[in-house]
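Here is one chain, start to finish.
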Amino acid sequence: MRKSLTDLIYFVTYRCNFRCGTCFFAGTMDAKAEGRRRELSLDEIRKVSSSLGRLDKLLISGGEPFLRDDLAEICRIFYANNGIQYLHLPTNGFYPDKIYTCLQDIMSSCQGLNVEVGLPLDGFKETHDKIKGVDGSFDKVLQTIKKISELKKRFKNFRIYVITVVNNENINEIIPLCEFIKKNLSVD
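Its structure:
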């Protein structure tokens, strides 16, 4: 019996602009020099993709995937070579305009691809920013959700969801945070 892959988890970068207290990866790599050095080039990605055959799902990971300026091209490579039907993209949501532009590019050039974007809310402003290690990160996530929600109007195969890592610092905010998300954010 021949075995084949159906899903691929691909760490596109080690780079990240956050140092989340809940991340298994935080602090393990130099975010700039070493992280960029270890990224595959587009030619290397094409070779890997060409060797895999058909895939159902591509789950992008990292670091922060949107730090790669060629993220849309990477997604197009797997769409063209492997016929992926589902794409999962997590992001810390710190770059609303860049994320919107990249997602619009992916959705326009990979018609029929089901795209899910996961954004973190690990509490309300003070708690979230403390856990993420970046002041203003809560506000950036809200801006990103608002901005990319516009894509849901144009693309029925586009979903947004919120990821929360429950821990001792945010446990008392979880239920109010869920209510806030349901009431104020356009997520699936």
